[in-house]
């Protein structure tokens, strides 16, 4: 008996999105294990309260993302929709807390290994806090279009992975933003390949969302080196010092 093509497609789709969600969870845990999740094993230095709140809120999004993809795979769209409200609240908190944390950390001189000076680097996390809500907002707008919604929410989550990837214990990370942006983009490549294999084309949502993320990456570094940005960043950090 021949397999039902529609059933096979749906099964493949479930495996892909759940698999991507699991990959995201593993990446985030691996990146932040030494500094957050398993911090007591690596250092006795306590985290500032804001970083605990930051970690809790961002982790909540990652866990919710895994739950939501699993619910869809289990055909529990009713629960998935109800949890969408929580997702909107968490996403809003992420932007507020993420931007605040980035500004405070820049004022403290924080920058990743191989990264640019703190005020220049500030454009990277603030860029995440711009791209992420754009994609999440579009995802909520198209919540009644599953083919668009799931791609936008997936890529919104991918757009904030650079922070975790930058902390992975790979020597290539010494190269700074080009390295962790490049590895982040492998998740976008996976989405593109999935579309090509299943649809024989790149879905418009994948193309536009992926392009927004990829184009924003070098653009941030260009903007970060301008006098206008440094003046603005100095003004921002002045309010938290």
């Amino acid at each position: 008996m021949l397999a039902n093509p529609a059933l096979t497609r749906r099964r493949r789709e479930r495996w892909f999105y759940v698999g991507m969600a699991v990959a995201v969870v593993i990446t985030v845990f691996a990146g932040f294990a030494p500094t957050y999740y398993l911090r007591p094993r690596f250092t006795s230095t306590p985290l500032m309260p804001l970083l605990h709140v930051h970690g809790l809120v961002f982790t909540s999004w990652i866990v919710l993302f895994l739950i939501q993809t699993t619910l869809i795979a289990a055909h529990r769209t009713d629960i998935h929709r109800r949890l969408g409200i929580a997702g909107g609240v968490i996403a809003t908190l992420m932007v507020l807390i993420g931007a605040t944390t980035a500004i405070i950390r820049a004022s403290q001189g924080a920058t990743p290994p191989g990264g640019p000076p703190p005020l220049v680097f500030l454009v990277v996390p603030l860029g995440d806090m711009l791209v992420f809500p754009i994609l999440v907002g579009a995802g909520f707008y198209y919540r009644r279009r599953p083919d668009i919604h799931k791609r936008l929410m997936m890529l919104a989550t991918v757009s904030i992975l650079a922070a975790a990837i930058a902390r992975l214990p790979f020597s290539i990370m010494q190269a700074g933003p080009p390295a962790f942006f490049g590895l982040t983009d492998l998740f976008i490549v996976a989405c593109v390949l999935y579309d090509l294999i299943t649809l024989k084309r790149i879905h418009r949502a994948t193309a536009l969302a992926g392009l927004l993320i990829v184009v924003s990456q070098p653009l941030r570094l260009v903007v970060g080196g301008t006098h206008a940005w440094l003046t603005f960043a100095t003004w921002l950090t002045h309010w938290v010092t």
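The chain has a mean pLDDT of 92. Residues 5-37 form the longest helix (33 residues).
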